[in-house]
Design brief:
Blueprint lengths: L7 H10 L3 E5 L3 H10 L3 E4 L3 H4 L11 H13 L5 E5 L9 H13 L5 E3 L7 H9 L4 E6 L5 H4 L9 H17 L3 E5 L3 H10 L4 E4 L7 E4 L1 H4 L17 H18 L20
Parallel strand pairs: 1-2, 1-8, 2-3, 3-4, 4-5, 5-6, 6-7, 7-8
Helix pairs in contact: 2-4, 5-6, 8-9
The chain binds 3-methyl-2-oxobutanoic acid.
The site of 3-methyl-2-oxobutanoic acid (KIV) has 11 residues, from strand 6.
Length: about 280
């Protein structure tokens, strides 16, 4: 029997019941299928795609076409989780009508159930309009990676009282505009706690301590797949980079030594699926 899909309204209900929300990023169908079957509540097709898959230094160069492509393939691998697609830099800031068109494409062509965009009161008219036309919006406050060149790096945010006030006002504005949830990135744990108490929609933290209504991590970080740099708040639940490197070495040695394929082993097993023609 197919599992009942997670809806945006289910997340609000989880907050009401005091149950935590588990969210991870995914960028392809295989990862989506594995994490979906593991029971993840939300799969975010994050624009972190730019850094962990496409090889950029920041999320800034990611395009709407990149997001559409990866959203489609994540959706194809997902049966139960709520799939949220990130709106990339400058896909929602130029005008409200462009934002509606782009968010609409992520839903209609990409198959996402909701979009996420960065910012508070600066983008509130866009959030209101998207919600008005039936597009569920997840907000994103604290460290805004699309503004990395403006803030001067991937630093902790809301460390001064004026910034904390601003963040709380932005969170309240997002809730009033109809956002169904808010990501809080790289802010002090006590500020995340205050923001979580300040709004009735669920907060999802990353580098924001344990008091949020849910947690999100970049899948490649928590799987130990992207190990060039491990953010201090990440817990590695596996070390897939080591596993892949070791498997790669073993395969290369086997091929070079003539140990693979073994003499007498079938080229393809009869009746089995094969990727070769
Ligand atoms: O793009 C992304 O992966 C994100 C998460 C870090 C929340 O926005």
């Amino acid at each position: 029997m197919q599992a009942k899909p997670v809806r945006t309204t289910d997340l609000k209900e989880l907050k009401r019941r005091g149950e935590k929300i588990a969210m991870l990023t995914a960028y392809d169908a295989t990862m989506a299928r594995l994490l979906d079957r593991a029971g993840i509540d939300v799969l975010l097709v994050g624009d972190s795609l730019g850094m962990v898959v496409l090889g950029y230094d920041t999320t800034v160069p990611v395009t709407l076409d990149d997001m559409l492509h990866h959203t489609r393939i994540v959706v194809r691998g997902t049966e139960r989780a709520l799939v949220v697609a990130d709106m990339p830099f400058l896909s929602y800031q130029v005008s409200t009508s462009e934002a509606v068109r782009n968010a609409g494409r992520l839903m209609k062509e990409g198959g996402a159930a909701a979009v996420k965009l960065e910012g508070g009161r600066a983008v509130i008219d866009v959030v209101k309009r998207l919600v008005d036309v039936g597009i569920p919006v997840m907000g994103h406050l604290g460290l805004l990676p699309q503004s990395v060149h403006q803030v001067g790096g991937f630093h902790k945010q809301a460390t001064r009282p004026a910034e904390v006030e601003r963040l709380l006002a932005d969170a309240a504005a997002l809730e009033a505009a109809g956002a169904f949830s808010i990501v809080l990135e790289s802010i002090p744990s006590e500020v995340a706690k205050a923001a979580t108490a300040h709004v009735s929609v669920p907060t999802i933290g990353i580098g924001a301590g344990p008091h949020c209504d849910g947690q999100v991590l970049v899948c490649s970080d928590m799987l130990g797949l992207f190990d060039d740099f491990v953010p201090p708040f990440v817990k590695q639940y596996a070390r897939l980079a080591d596993t892949i490197r070791d498997a790669g070495h073993a395969y290369i040695e086997d091929v070079r030594a003539g140990r693979f394929p073994e003499a007498g082993s079938p080229a393809t097993a009869p009746g089995n699926k094969t990727r070769t023609a």
